[in-house]
Amino acid sequence: MMKYTEDHEWLRVEGDLVVVGITEHAATQLGDVVFVELPERETMVATGDEVVVIESVKAASDILAPVDGEIVEVNDALSDKPGLVNDDPTGAGWFFKMQLDDMSVLDAFMSEDEYNDLVG
Amino acid sequence: MAELKRTGLYDLHVELGGKMVPFAGYEMPVQYPMGVMKEHLHCRAQAGLFDVGHMGQVILRPKAGMAALVAGFEAMMPVAVEGLAEGRQRYGLFTNASGGIIDDLMFANRGDHLFVVVNAGCKDGDIAHMRAKLAAVAEVIEVTGRGLLALQGPGAEAALAALVPGAAAMRFMDVISADTGFGELWISRSGYTGEDGFEISVPDVEGLARALLALEGVAPIGLGARDSLRLEAGLCLYGHDMDEAATPVEANLAWGIQKARRKGGAREGGFPGADVILAQLASGPARLRVGLRPEGRAPMREGIELFDQAEGGAPVGRVTSGGFGPSVEVPIAMGYVPAACAAEGTQLWGEVRGKRLPVTVAPMPFRPSTYKR
């Protein structure tokens, strides 16, 4: 099940973790990604913290933590292949995995249909 | 805000899916659906077509003979105008009284007149400046009713030669006229990407653009890739890598100052800021524009401050252009540093998001240019 934020991030539940990336719409808007700065593992973050910096050919953008929790895994493949964010934004281009105290906070985010309505 | 102007290719840009943005008072395509990275690589591998119709095209028509015009134009810049043969083009720099760069430009000797191309953002000022300085010797005529295209890349020669056979025989910085179904073309073998190619002034710009785009291997390229191409080629963008506060020597453009205008030359000095510029040529400038190669993968963009130590101290310089070089596949930048830090291989640090990251002074161009000399 995928959930979506107004900042064009997707969240996917994988066992007891939540995987976070950006949507295809966001990746297209950003343009070709040339560098991704990932957070440290085992970092506690709060909603709205800047956790990832994406540099595209055009500009730098911040990715914010969508929920409170702990970063438990990051996608090291992006260090060598930042273009995965463009090539496969909802698959191999994921950024990090979080452990949440309370998975029910995900209920507040948009469904795929609701997100598609937002980006038209 | 003043209304944005459009070039003769606006409708074609929209039709091709160009993403239009404001640039130097014009609505210009920053990219097409191919995207900046692929457009850049396409231009290096095949041929890219750029709309540069926002730039200023100016004819200087002599009032009292070419010699007087040549002398008058030469008095505006530290560059030799005399001695430029008919059918040849040269890079020029207008300077101010303190030696700062008012604009950079291309000028061509077209027999009975000079043809000048100036930057879009500077063109009104440049035209007023030329009218003031050349009033006695030339009519300064802004060319209207013509577009300007750049066709760049290894496939440019074959593409243009399919429409204008004479183009193939041109060498770097040659200029010719050619009668075609699109009107009389004024072609120079030049550009601003580090690639072989042409710039073409043309009456029927949409007709010529469509004819070129119909050829195998020619794709439209936006301003985004134009910027990364010229950065890899080590070429300056006016208002970023040079401005009125930087002299040609500081901007590392001393190669554009011919021997005749230097100390001991046949026509030494006699241009605005000559005292400053000649002194810098003799004893070196206090600061210099250099190439910069960040060691990691994080790009260092315009405005990043440079330090000569990993911690503490005041900034010694600043990045003036920077980003990712799609052909060299690493981040690249240029900026101004003190002369003491300007030697190739000097280790500096750029402060990116509060962290000092290592960066090395590197030779330019970052990628060898392929001009057809």
Which architecture of chain A would the CATH scheme give at its second level? Beta Barrel
**CATH fold name of the largest domain in chain B:** Gyrase A, domain 2
Pairing-aware structural class of the strands and helices of chain A?
alpha+beta
The helix content of chain B is 10-25%
- What is the number of strand segments of chain A? 9
CATH topology of chain A: OB fold (Dihydrolipoamide Acetyltransferase, E2P)
CATH homologous superfamily label of chain A: RNA polymerase II/Efflux pump adaptor protein, barrel-sandwich hybrid domain
Oligomer: heterodimer
Q: What's the structural blueprint in terms of helices and strands?
A:
The complex is a heterodimer of chains A (120) and B (373).
Chain A: E1 2-4, E2 9-14, E3 17-22, H1 24-30, E4 33-37, E5 43-45, E6 50-56, E7 60-64, E8 69-74, H2 77-80, H3 84-87, E9 96-99, H4 112-119
Chain B: H1 10-15, E1 19-23, E2 26-31, H2 36-45, E3 47-51, E4 56-62, H3 66-74, E5 88-95, E6 101-109, E7 114-118, H4 123-133, E8 138-142, E9 147-152, H5 156-163, E10 175-180, E11 183-188, E12 197-202, H6 205-213, E13 218-220, H7 223-232, H8 274-283, E14 287-294, E15 305-307, E16 317-325, E17 330-338, E18 347-352, E19 355-362
Parallel strand pairs in B: 3-13
Antiparallel strand pairs in B: 1-2, 3-9, 4-7, 4-8, 5-6, 6-7, 9-12, 10-11, 11-12, 14-17, 14-19, 15-16, 15-18, 16-17, 18-19
Structural commentary:
- Chain A is of the alpha+beta class and 120 residues long.
- Chain A has one domain (2-119): OB fold (Dihydrolipoamide Acetyltransferase, E2P), CATH 2.40.50.100.
- Chain A has helices at 24-30, 77-80, 84-87, 112-119; strands at 2-4, 9-14, 17-22, 33-37, 43-45, 50-56, 60-64, 69-74, 96-99.
- In chain A, the strands form two sheets. In chain A, strands 1-2-3-9-8-5 form a six-stranded antiparallel β-sheet. Chain A has a three-stranded antiparallel β-sheet with strand order 4-6-7.
- In chain A, a hairpin with a 2-residue loop joins strand 2 (9-14) and strand 3 (17-22).
- Chain B is of the alpha+beta class.
- Chain B has helices at 10-15, 36-45, 66-74, 123-133, 156-163, 205-213, 223-232, 274-283; strands at residues 19-23, 26-31, 47-51, 56-62, 88-95, 101-109, 114-118, 138-142, 147-152, 175-180, 183-188, 197-202, 218-220, 287-294, 305-307, 317-325, 330-338, 347-352, 355-362.
- Chain B is globular and about 65 Å long.
- The A-B interface holds A 31-32, 34-35, 37, 53, 55, 57-60, 79, 82 and B 30-31, 35-38, 224, 228, 297-299, 301, 323-324, 326, 331, 353.
